[in-house]
Amino acid sequence: MNLQAVFNIAEICAQHGVKEVILSPGSRCAPLTLAFARHPAIQVRTISDERAAAFIGLGMALTTRQPVVLVCTSGTAALNYSPAVAEAFYQQVPLLVFTADRPAEWIDQLDGQTIRQENIYGAHIKRSFSFPVDTQHPDANWFAQRLLSEAILETKAYPPGPVQVNVPLREPFYPKPGETLEYNQEVKVIQEWSNAYELTNTQRAPLEEELTTFTKILVVAGQHYPDPVCQVPLQYFTRNTGAVVVADIISNQHNLPEVIRYHDVFLNGNATKKASELQPDLLITLGLSNISKNLKLFLRAFPAHEHWHLQAAGEVADPFQSLTRVIRCTPQSFFSLIPNGKEANTKTYQAEWLEQEKTASNYLQEFLGQNNFNEFIAFARILENLPNNSVVHLANSMAVRYANIISLRPEQNITVFANRGTSGIDGCTSTTVGSALSTNLITTLITGDLAFFYDRNGLWHNYLPLNLRIILLNNHAGGIFRLIDGPRQQQELAEFFETKQVLDARLTAQEFNLKYYPCENLQQLAENLNIFWKNGPGILEIFTQSEKNADFFQLYRQHSPFKSK
């Protein structure tokens, strides 16, 4: 193997602006390790557990919106990246995955640590490349360098996502004593000027005219990274058209004034009160998935006459079963349209939604203000006390649902992340660690016990950030199954669905040098929340009982003013 060609990989990445590498050590990937570790413009962190490593890289890329490189050895190491690669694919996060491999002639020859690695991530990768094993010929060297630029550009091309480069490597893996390898500044680098995805003047005029024909416009924002560039035109659009904006907490639109945040409380599928008044005639959607099942069921039961989805490029989903048009532009370009709205009618539509929003807000405030210790009320106290201008990661599965019901106040200015591309519990802690490594802001993970203990290896390394905080809701089970009618009614619930466990995080905190704050009542919770974010990295563990949590959540449903008679 020509080691200079591998060192060129690191140089090309650096010239494309790549700054972060997450490495899982091994023998086969040694040339890649040396190439990245010695490069002065690249920071390399070593994470032994490949599954955790990939999610840490995901968290870094989520926060920076820039490609992060993953490097692993051959064999099952590459397979362990799969959950994070799938999450990155569905959440549109740029990852560049280098998988070291044996040369093709040694695949399936009973050699150690060898599996079929080409295109190993199948349909869950934007593109998979195979690096040439021999780059001695000038054409092969040209091909190798061209391939790397293509791979890096592909991670960023809209929609962004993960890209694999499989790198077959022959021994020797290490430079000989006295052998000097340098970074060739003259490597071939291909740059790209990306499309602006703006509406043209010829597109704007008919859209502005068509918008005037609708009086009940509903904008639904799915999962999206924080985008201040979009928020200003969206505010103007709602004022000009009377549109209503509904935003799940993971849309990061909860900072908008008059945004509908409590839709999970007052929408109820085909049993929604005032459904005909709330039903839109034009639905405009942007972003990725929505958490709220109530919202999905409502929009399927009462579909809009027209449904326009705003997406610059890529495949488009139809989760509400009502899609009629795809508009290929950025949301900010669309929302800069200035139609002549029908003011009286549109204000009536806004008023209907705001009336429901106010009733839902009052009900939540009263219900969650009780002096009753359970995880729903604890969650409300947590969200109330989150530091302003901070970052929060919501683990699957009940944490993200509680947060979507309770929501955040606009003035808190909190950025929200969650692994809702595939909605798994497997990498929530690791993703938060990666995110915290990429910002100076306080970064808080709110998680359940199963998700936390599943991903403890996300803490097993030498890079725990000082801005990391973990809030663990420990009901000693998968409590969500007590809240779902199907499993809740089965005699196998406790053993085969909830998966009861007896662990707590005290020793985990001790092992990883984290401060530990146990809470068993509201007074302890209030006292600990007062100091938790001020005292450095730590775990705040809230102990509740799964059965009591379920009973209280059922009371929330039963007492709701929106409950169908």
UniProtKB/TrEMBL annotation:
Superkingdom, natural source: Bacteria
GO MF term set: 2-succinyl-5-enolpyruvyl-6-hydroxy-3-cyclohexene-1-carboxylic-acid synthase activity; magnesium ion binding; manganese ion binding; thiamine pyrophosphate binding
EC annotation from Swiss-Prot or TrEMBL: 2.2.1.9
Stored Gene3D superfamilies: 3.40.50.970, TPP-binding domain
Keyword Zinc-finger: no
A Pfam cross-reference name: TPP_enzyme_M_2
Keyword annotations: Magnesium, Manganese, Menaquinone biosynthesis, Metal-binding, Thiamine pyrophosphate, Transferase
Cofactor: Mg(2+); Mn(2+); thiamine diphosphate
CDD domains: TPP_PYR_MenD, TPP_SHCHC_synthase
Menaquinone biosynthesis protein MenD middle domain: residues covered: 211-391
Pathway(s) it belongs to: Quinol/quinone metabolism; menaquinone biosynthesis; Quinol/quinone metabolism; 1,4-dihydroxy-2-naphthoate biosynthesis; 1,4-dihydroxy-2-naphthoate from chorismate: step 2/7
Catalyzed reactions per annotation: isochorismate + 2-oxoglutarate + H(+) = 5-enolpyruvoyl-6-hydroxy-2-succinyl-cyclohex-3-ene-1-carboxylate + CO2
UniProt cofactor note: Binds 1 thiamine pyrophosphate per subunit.
Residues in Thiamine pyrophosphate enzyme N-terminal TPP-binding domain copies: 9-111
Biological processes, Gene Ontology terms: menaquinone biosynthetic process
Purpose of the protein: Catalyzes the thiamine diphosphate-dependent decarboxylation of 2-oxoglutarate and the subsequent addition of the resulting succinic semialdehyde-thiamine pyrophosphate anion to isochorismate to yield 2-succinyl-5-enolpyruvyl-6-hydroxy-3-cyclohexene-1-carboxylate (SEPHCHC).
Family per record: Belongs to the TPP enzyme family. MenD subfamily.
NCBIfam families: menD (TIGR00173)
Quaternary structure annotation from Swiss-Prot or TrEMBL: Homodimer.
Protein's recorded name: 2-succinyl-5-enolpyruvyl-6-hydroxy-3-cyclohexene-1-carboxylate synthase
Organism the protein comes from: Adhaeribacter arboris
